[in-house]
Amino acid sequence: MSKPIIYACSDSLGDTAERVARAAASQYDKQEFDIVRMPYIRTEQQLEDLVQKAVENQAMICYTIISPVLRNTLKNLTSAARITAIDIIGPMLAGVGTLTQTEPTTKPGMIHQLDEEYFKRVEAIEFAVKFDDGKNPMGFLKADIVIVGVSRTSKTPLSMYLAHKRVKAANLPLVPEVALPPELFEVPARKIVGLIIDPFKLNFIRSERLRSMGLDSNANYANIERINEELTYARGVMRRLHCPIIDVSSKAIEETANLVMDIVKRNKELYHE
Questions:
Q1: Secondary structure (H, E, C), the chain
Q2: Average pLDDT of 170-190?
Q3: pTM of the model
């Protein structure tokens, strides 16, 4: 037996309509539903096609359509076709209207169109995840900034923090036994940042990390001599790269991120990147 279909449609992304549909469907935990998002509905022809699909599949429709004309059209079409249709945004718009003397803009997607921050943030977060920990060196050439440093210098948290500020950051751990990817040396020095840290601070961080994993805190990973060896190697790499270096020993992520964002901003101003 096929699953009942709910079309979640919108004149914007349709994520609100889909979330509401899923929230409602989840209450019927003995029945599975096929929830189909239908975004960017902008014409009456699209509405007619949608209603026809709903008729053919005996489906229902829920919608967050801002345009009063399109909302009214869909209401008439679904009524004539005897299709269940739920207007999610219309009643709310009317309710909010009772609190103000101003008129709604009736522009779809305003929640995401206040500026481009929403889309840039999502893109930057996806970028940070994809190019974390040197998984794909090809990302270095696409990044706003490439972060290098030894293990546990907060490269990944820093990359994610920057992503929420719409900065595309890739990062690479520097390990003496692991060859550096050639792509790293194709990146301009101004787009690379090296992170260093006090060896005893790093010793504490790594020891705590090992304990939290149920491992021996005296392992080579947290050995002070090994740490000094790694830091010496890392400084040598950073000299070869001629990149800016930030000591994160006593800095919070926010402080380091502000310094990195200053570098990114300067690059955009000077090199129009």
A1: CCCCEEEEEECCCCHHHHHHHHHHHCCCCCCCCEEEEECCCCCHHHHHHHHHHHHHHCCEEEEECCCHHHHHHHHHHHHHHCCCEEECCHHHHHHHHCCCCCCCCCCCCHHHHCCCHHHHHHHHHHHHHHCHHHCCHHHHHHCCEEEEECCCCCHHHHHHHHHHCCCCEEEEECCCCCCCCHHHHHCCHHHEEEEECCHHHHHHHHHHHHHHCCCCCCCHHHCHHHHHHHHHHHHHHHHHHCCCEEECCCCCHHHHHHHHHHHHHHHHHHHCC
A2: 97
A3: 0.61
